[in-house]
Design goal:
Distance between the termini of chain A: 53 Å
Low-confidence stretches of chain A: none
Number of helices of chain A: 9
Number of strands of chain A: 0
Radius of gyration of chain A: 20 Å
Oligomer: homotetramer
Helix content of chain A: 55-70%
Largest sheet of chain A: none
Order of helices and strands of chain A: HHHHHHHHH
CATH topology of the largest domain in chain A: Tetracycline Repressor, domain 2
Shape of chain A: elongated
Structural class of chain A: mainly alpha
Largest interface: A-B, 62 and 62 residues
Mean pLDDT of chain A: 89
CATH superfamily of the largest domain in chain A: Tetracycline Repressor, domain 2
DNA sequence: CAGTAACCGAGACGGTACGTCGAGTCTTACA
DNA sequence: TGTAAGACTCGACGTACCGTCTCGGTTACTG
């Protein structure tokens, strides 16, 4: 155990105020107009305290967004209809439209991920892995009732779903019901014709 | 006509030097560590000259990357084997690995797209549309020979392919032959089981 | 000649605004509470512009004070009465009292001189030498009329006058008429008694 | 009596370690680059402990320097030759040269005195008064044997000696034997010529 | 073919934000 | 209860770039 260090202990209240202020700034201005000085002022915190917790702007963004927002939308319920479940989950993940807070935070996270490879690793571990786990469980359940093929490539499925939504959000296109329906349909039925290589 | 203005005409050499310096900087440092002053110095050009051509950093990046790099990889040849053609195209688009110049430029473009909605619009128009056109032609050819279903949702296909690769690149994962094979297989065969909703 | 450099030429107006703001700050707050950020704001100037002209805080202070203030008091008129001339000059140099602007600027210059040896060199060259020259002329005139011994050690005279006033100002004691009278009397008559070593 | 309080008593060892560390820092870096954090670390002491003893940086410097250094040189022995005694004392006070520890501490004290009027008061009380007392005794002795005039202005003598040496040290000039000889000669003989106002 | 208007490089300008240092205060665990 | 340790808010540092504005100087159309 190592909790018994001398000196004042770190203020969890400051940490939370920083994360909240960060999310507000991200939604309002986006990643690269983000200013740590404004965040510090808004959170009522010294700049040094931000640096004590987070080594860089991108690390702060990763932490602030991954914990405060994206993880909320990551549960994938089982209603018996796997297509409907996926559709619902995709639309919740993307948020209401290109101007929604969700969309702004996804764009900010993407920019942070693009900038910094440690953030990329964190994103991989905190989002992709979690989503994959949830999706794998849901697909397994679907296999039991014959809705899903037993050899479905889970990783490719996860990344194509997340990546596609990400692309829509980055290019500011709406993640509409029509688009999601097409995507799910594509996912389940494929585009293979009569002459395509047969299922193994 | 407006070419008959008095005064010195703009230097095409300067413009090209700027774009080249921009790409070098992007590959080396990424989007948000990009410095117009360094670009100007590297290109042997005054800062004002950059601003004469491009109104903002993101516009410069959009121009520099979209024309100089991404468009190179956008042709989609027809060898008769549509799966192989798509596989080849996807891997060429992503570049050799997460440290390749291609990957760095894709990340930079993603960050620029995330930041600036006019860049997003330009990306949509210059990449998505072009890819969609090329892919639509290839899919149509595939339909003729029975490799592709006649009702394949082209937009969803395009965006799921581009988005998936983008996601791999952003999270610094390799776009390996195995992954691409899984992705193409998913695309053609779907994951639907015996009890999934029948094809329309 | 080398005045024909490319680029915008430096703004003399900025330079003067900086010096004026510096003097105001020095009088109001003193040397080590001096803030370049406040000076820049008061002068309506970017911080970088200050650094472009002056390499350090102490250099700025030296320049600002030596040119803007101390040199004003350095002329030593000749009314025929050398004691009165010196008395008048000493009191003018010190300013009205320990709270006067002159006193504040002398204290600031002393602190800057104590901190930085290049400022010390500048002080030596810009104040000591000038004062010595003026005083030497006045003493020479005094010698002509028999008011001053021909072998008076000019350097020691200069530095003891300036140093004594400096000491009074640093310790916040008034440079009163009584004190100055004593000092001048000491200077002219010495403290030697009947048994002191005879004049050479 | 107050030694019988509960709790740990204040550590005299800490206080001395603080003063020693302060002197080391002053000699090495000068007054305004002085850092209480470095002093605390060097003394193996918490910052709060310093603040418990000294209310401000300048108070610490005053205490540290006035007690630890300057007072060492303040005794003014009587060998019978008052000129030699003064010469010796002046050179000891100034230290070996502009780079000596003594010179550095004198500069630091001057800066602290310039900054803070409570330090100025303390300096006045702890240095000037003591020196004046010692010098008055020596001069009185000199008067007895006819080496010094009976009406010598002691305050002016003290401050002109201390101030002159201070000026030499601030401007980084050596307090050489030649200079001191000139100064003492000036002090005893004055510069008055045959036509100067007669001694009162 | 001389003017002149728009370009060019260079670089200083007023600003904003950076990441670091230190001041002086507050809060722990320990002695 | 005093102390070393160290986190806290706050303010300033010196640097890097931003986007704009001037410089002296170079084209290349136009009258």
């Amino acid at each position: 155990m190592e909790t018994a260090r001398p000196g004042r202990s770190r203020s969890e209240a400051s940490r939370l105020a920083i994360l909240e202020a960060t999310r507000d700034e991200l939604v309002e201005r986006g990643y690269d107009k983000l200013s740590l000085e404004r965040i510090a002022a808004a959170a009522g915190v010294g700049k040094q305290t931000i640096y004590r917790w987070y080594p860089s702007k991108s690390a702060l963004v990763a932490e602030g967004v991954l914990h405060g927002h994206l993880m909320d939308h990551i549960d994938l319920p089982d209603t018996g209809d796997i297509r409907a479940d996926l559709t619902h989950w995709l639309m919740a993940f993307a948020g209401a439209g290109p101007e929604s807070d969700s969309a702004a935070l996804i764009r900010a996270t993407s920019a942070a991920t693009a900038e910094d490879e440690t953030v990329a690793a964190r994103y991989e571990e905190q989002v992709t892995v979690v989503v994959r786990t949830a999706l794998r469980a849901r697909l397994t359940a679907g296999m039991e009732v014959g809705q899903v093929r037993r050899d479905a490539p889970v990783t490719a499925v996860v990344e194509s779903l997340v990546g596609t939504v990400l692309f829509r959000v980055l290019t500011r296109q709406p993640v509409s019901a029509e688009f999601v329906a097409d995507l799910v349909s594509l996912l389940f039925s494929g585009i293979g014709g009569s002459d395509s290589t047969p299922r193994v």
